[in-house]
User: What shape does this take?
Amino acid sequence: MKKAYLLVAMPFKNANRPIFQRGWGTSALEYDVVRYTVRVALRLSVDDSTVSVRDAARVLRFLRENPDYLVKVKKGMLYCGVCGRGPFTKRGLYLHLTRVHAEEIARAVRQAPESLRKL
Ligand SMILES: [Zn+2]
Assistant: This one.
């Protein structure tokens, strides 16, 4: 009962947060999705409460279908999958992707089809 309520409520969890434009044209909500996407791609710990269930499903599907989009690994070193810059440390690549490519990542994830399957 309680769990079902949570699942229904979660997609609207962020609805009350103010949506304002950041410098790079990404809204605060989208920036949460970008951060979540990059963290999952880099296998960093993620806070699922920062994105809706629907966005999380979209991100996971997007990363499954485009495994090299954000991160390329060459000889054990991390390179940016978008512009090829590197090598980076994990944290360095996280900062690079969220600062330089936030808009591209937001657009790519937004355009990815929503998962038809339940998580
Ligand atoms: Zn890059």
Observations:
- Strands lie at 71-74, 77-80.
- Residues 1-24 have pLDDT under 50 and may be disordered.
- The helical segments are 2-9, 28-41, 53-65, 90-100, 102-111.
- The two ends are 19 Å apart (CA to CA).
